[in-house]
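#structure-requests
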Amino acid sequence: MLSIERVGRRFPGGTEALRDVSLNLSSGDFVALLGPSGCGKSTLLRLIAGLDQPDSGRLVWDEGHEPTPGEIGFVFQDATLLPWATAEENVYLPLRLRGVSRAEAAPRLRDALARVGLEQFAKARPRQLSGGMRMRVSIARALVTRPRILLMDEPFAALDEFTRHKLQADLLALWEAIGCTVVFVTHSIYEAAYLARRIVLMTPRPGRIASERVSPLPHGHSRLDPAYATLVAEITAAMEQALGPADEPRGPQDQAGAAGHVRDVRSCGGEGPA
């Protein structure tokens, strides 16, 4: 579907976000971009979305067919809903911007809200919805254009653990139902291991691909599955190696952040199988 070939991105201030990144995405993939904060995960997502351009390398879409804006769905960490609009109106927004009439859009709005379990909350405004429900509206808005590829930038990071686990399971079911390609940015090893078919590990800045794991987990897997715990341990070991000394000096802030991430991984706190 997409070949990312030796892509680099350096920002005007001199920060090198990405260096020599190569990655292939196939139709129907579920790929997690995993790494510490500041490793270029979100920058790579923006390049895929066409919201930014690389300084070196290139992105080659299948048969030269670069997706139109409607064929790319983007879900941000914050739900970014219009506070004065209902859930249905928020989901309608990308279709309205494309000139689709409300009458023509109505079946697609109902379908998108039903897919995320919010058909009974179509007339509710964001302030009437929980954090998890607002994120569901954001996902429905991304799906209403029927995208070829769904880009998700840490969408569950701000949610409590119970809500996060529920939405992760619902996202897997949704992906299996609609069959679009998903690229999911996260700094949680547990989340990447549970969700993705392919886990791509990125190094601290400048972001590069350190390694890739193909998930061995079966369809309908559980967090209590021993294979899940094994995968988490393998990714943890690979991430600790990726967080080792870079080939160029990093500042004290970067070093402190990397050390903190390794300590978090070793403690297995937060989203562990227990």
